[in-house]
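[Amino acid chain]
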Amino acid sequence: MASRRLEHGMRHDRIALHGIRAYGRHGANAGERTAAQALDVDVEVEMDLGSARASDALAETLDYAGLHERVVAIVRDRSYALLERLADEIANAILADSRVAAATVTVAKPALLSGATPSVTVRAERGERS
């Protein structure tokens, strides 16, 4: 977990979940949406964890298991042509927690190309989205 100070002096710590494997029907070609395929998702969440550091209470931080479940459910239950849209939906779901200042989401499709793994990264900050 890394930490940084923003321009206005507020401290934001970073929580990361890497390598979330989820299965969903996403792709620009119709054939990519006929059967669920593996997608790998990395999530970084920025928020002030000062209360959690001081209290050592789970309620003061982000529940990793709950975040993992939300990401898997979005990948599984929705279907988009573009990874950009999927990553954006995940980022918006993370920002629904008012304690979150920013979220960075990377979605990769490991089985799409032989010899390469395409991925898309989206960053969303509180206040820049409706």
Summary: The chain has one domain: 3-125. The CA atoms of residues 46 and 123 lie 11 Å apart. Helices lie at 50-55, 64-77, 83-95. The beta strands are 3-5, 11-24, 37-47, 100-108, 119-125.
